[in-house]
Amino acid sequence: MKSYHQKFVSDHPYESSPMAEIAGFPVRPGIYDLNGATPLQNGVNFTIHTCGGTSCELLLFHRAQEEPFAVLPFPEAYKIGDVYSMIVYGLNIDEFEYAYRVDGPYCPEKGLLFDKNKILLDPYAKAVAGQRTWGIRWDHTYHARVVKDRFDWGDMPQSKKELCDLIIYELHVRDFTHHPSSGVQHRGTFSGLMEKIPYLKELGINAVELMPIFEFDETMNSRTVDGKQLLECWGYNTVGFFAPNSSYAAANEHNQEGTELKTLIKALHDNGIEVILDVVFNHTAEGNEKGNTFSFKGFDNNIYYMLTPDGNYYNFSGCGNTLNCNHPVVQQLILECLRYWTINYRVDGFRFDLASILGRNEDGSPMNNPPLLRTLADDSILSNVKLIAEAWDAGGLYQVGSFPASGRWAEWNGRYRDSLRSYLKGDSWNAWDAAWSISGSGDLYGGYYDNTHSNYAGYNSCVNFLTCHDGFTLYDLYAYNDKHNEANGWNNTDGANDNRSWNCGAEGETDDPEVLSLRRRMIRNACAVLMCSRGTPMFLAGDEFGNTKFGNNNSYCQDNITSWLDWRMLEKNKDLFEFFKFMIAFRKKHPVIHKQLPASVCGMDSIHTHNLNAEETDIPRDARTFCVSFAGYDKEKGKDDLIYVAVNTFWEDVTITLPNLHGRGAWHLSVNTYGDGNGQYCYPEGQEVRIDRSFVMRPRSVAVFTGRDY
Fold this sequence. Notes:
EC number: 3.2.1.-
Protein name: Glycogen debranching enzyme
Distance between the termini: 58 Å
Strand content: 15-25%
Organism: Blautia obeum
Radius of gyration: 27 Å
Largest sheet: 8 strands, parallel, barrel
Number of strands: 34
Domain Glycosyl hydrolase family 13 catalytic: 170-587
Number of helices: 15
CATH architecture of the domain at 163-290 and 317-412: Alpha-Beta Barrel
Enzyme class: hydrolase
Structural class: alpha+beta
Strand order of the largest sheet: 13-14-19-20-21-22-25-26
């Protein structure tokens, strides 16, 4: 059965018969509001726009050929406003690739870079040719392919999970399964990831956040350091916003690009796992004044990019150029792109890299109410997808807790990362910030109900994390005091210096059993706190089994064992995996941790912070130990849901006193990261250890208690 959109274009009256002939092809004016190249029943609709260009040509190529076999100039009669559109009949989409040439004024100091000899990639291309083989530099011009969507989604409904109900697992498609130890048939691909779905289900996560999967150029700035080829493998240098990365597909998908990715997404959905894409709308792979012109620069350089008065590029991205996101033309491209991925790939959410750039005006200044952010927040197609901002940029704009349109947008909580990293390693002066963060960062996000968008603007605005692709892995956070990025070739000058890490007594690899034991405890501490914090938890793939990058905190260029997950560590550190699995399940069983419930019957406050004695709710600013309680009435279970989290960063034993539960209520120990001496750190439901109100916290440990009847 055709989708409504497919039926609309195939039945459109413009395709009924040609009106003219150009370069031997029958043609007629096209569908002007249908951007990109769209297959019809007996032709292809090509639509492109340029504001400053004076003429445009459509180029048709045989596959992998540099010279076009046909050049079709757009007649002036086929232009309305700034839009050129033409239906070309008699084309077999399996037999050609296409691109454009645009003529116009060349005046770099005014930002005009038109060149009638430049071959340009369609900004709306659904597939990019020439990127199929990973790591092979494409020295030719980019061409696009026409894609026919034959994928059947069936009657799969859109996911209705709230953001606060998610446990997000950030991963890089290639790194996740490319190591030989992954055991998959199609290593480093969408299919390889699909082979790991049983593992993801066992772990218990219910959302994956995929690092960039739009077509990108991993060979950009490639170089050799110490005999190793370095590639920009993370994907934060977009070539085409509408095209999936063809090198992530296990099989050739000519003219059906995206099928393998759609199959993966459907399989994840069928297993209860949402898909969030990391999207990069802050810059492109065209770079600065020394960069290439392969698409946007050639169509309208002064529209797509923020330019200084002398025609150079503002660099708020740190990557050479900055997209001019609040120009109406760029707004339209971003909106259509997100709609496309939502409709055609059934994506559940988007994480926006360096999202503060999306709120900058054309001159680079921050805007109070950026039109792009408001447009995305209120768009009807995007109304149920998650919008998550990395609420800062490389130009110094830091908006954690104040990102515009935050009633709809969520944020990566950078303050949670910083305060908890500091506190957990023993920086006691961060106690207040750490307590605020665990209890939901109410000082940043409030916790009020937002009637406009029907969600809790506080708790649904906060994505908590301690690790992500950018920085140390969780193991390295407790194995290195300093970054070790020498292999990147920049004399260890790249990557963040503010890591708030601690090596537990030895830098890097060690055989010291006491150091190794402490490191594992610190990892358990971090996991327990993250999973018991109000907000949405996110962690980096491999953290659950102690994956290391050997101290490299900026592995963007390391397409090797530095970045590839070593699945042998899963067996070696099986106890860490089991702990993560338990904590994820524990969070799911206790909704009071991640959402506001009706008032508890026992009378405990919904959220509270405590000193060593639960009756003392004011904690010292430099407390080495504090506790956080969550309480509410779980209607589904018909009883109170009571959780008490105790965090001891002191290197000595500390005695805490829990709240008094009147009547038949008692506290039970569910988690003790120090362990019982026999390797037990978790107590499943029904096997918890009942305790008196007094409990001795062991050094550098976290304990989690549940309150219930005897």
